[in-house]
Amino acid sequence: MTTQSTSARTAAGHRKESRRRPPASSTTKVGRPGFAWALPAAVFFALFAIVPLIMVAVLSFMSWDGLSSPEFVGTDNWSRLIDDPVMLKSIWLTLLLTALGVVLQTPLSILLGVWAAGHQRNRAVLSVIYFIPLLLSATAVSVLWRALLDPNFGIPADATWLFGDGNLFGEQATAIGVLAFVSTWQFTPFHTLIYQGAARAIPPVLYQAAEIDGAGRYRQFFHITLPQLHTSMITSMILMIVGGLTTFETVLILTQGGPGTDTTISAYYMYDKAFKSFDYGTGSAIALALVVAATVISLIVVRVSGYDKMRSSMEGVS
């Protein structure tokens, strides 16, 4: 009797223990984090991004000099911008500088990123030296190159055989070239980091299989490395496009929109209207147009490239 009751209690204890503890082969599902985890970031984003954007949108339909009370003028600000030749010219210049940034920075970033992902001798030291411009602000970089390219005391003054009269800011073509060069010098290291991380994530077995098949270094680069960098390339290009459409400090410090209005991009024209002419309504309209343009172009790039349909093979929380 005692033996039977003891066995029954033991069996009941085992069943209870098995109910409490899941089998070792089962996988514990992890649910999505609750909304409370995202609340601080959502509040911060709303206060410093959504609310100011709504205020700018409202102000674009107002006439305001910064002192008197805003006055509703409807679409007058937008109508003036459509007929403003400087605004139309600034749009073309903005698109030109953005395109130059993509064309110049993309191949340089890919080549440097793939190289930095390797195991060459002194690679780490050279990478650190090259990434120094990434640590500087756009203002500091612009001040540095403004001094270096000064026509009276800078490099052009001592190399007239190369720069002619030395005034690189006196003509539209050379001024645009300087802006494109300075932006490339500063931001290429950032995109290089993107490609460096992506190149290191490529499975080595792909290169090993290519070597067995007799593929050389160049064939491996074009048939393995570049296709594997496709997602990172789209991400980098979107960042370049948004950065190109909203760049401001470089133009303000290097050319101030000159000569004349030959380098007056849309972001600088917004500053000129709002903070020099005290026409905050028109300045807000330009700012809102830049936001819309950057968003639309980014969405087009995402849709055309198929980036929105890409999925990682190692998804996080499902």
From TrEMBL:
Specify the protein's topology with respect to the membrane.
Multi-pass membrane protein
Q: SUPFAM superfamilies annotated for this entry?
A: MetI-like
Cell compartment(s), UniProt: Cell membrane
Enumerate the Pfam families for this protein. BPD_transp_1 (PF00528)
Region of interest (Disordered), ranges:
1-30
Q: Which GO terms describe its cellular component?
A: plasma membrane
Extent of Basic residues compositional bias: 12-22
What is one GO biological process annotated to this record?
A: transmembrane transport
| PROSITE patterns, alphabetized | ABC_TM1 (PS50928)
What sequence ranges are listed for the domain ABC transmembrane type-1? 91-301
Where it mainly occurs, coarsely classed, is membrane
The record ties this protein, via CDD domains, to:
TM_PBP2
Residue ranges spanning the membrane: these are 35-62, 91-116, 128-148, 168-187, 237-258, 278-302
Q: Which UniProt keywords apply?
A: Cell membrane, Membrane, Transmembrane, Transmembrane helix, Transport
The record's annotation in InterPro entries points to: ABC_transporter_permease (IPR051393), MetI-like (IPR000515), MetI-like_sf (IPR035906)
- Identify the Gene3D superfamilies for this entry: MetI-like (1.10.3720.10)
* Family indicated by similarity: Belongs to the binding-protein-dependent transport system permease family.
> Would you tell me the protein name for this molecule?
ABC transporter
Which organism does this record belong to? Streptomyces mutabilis
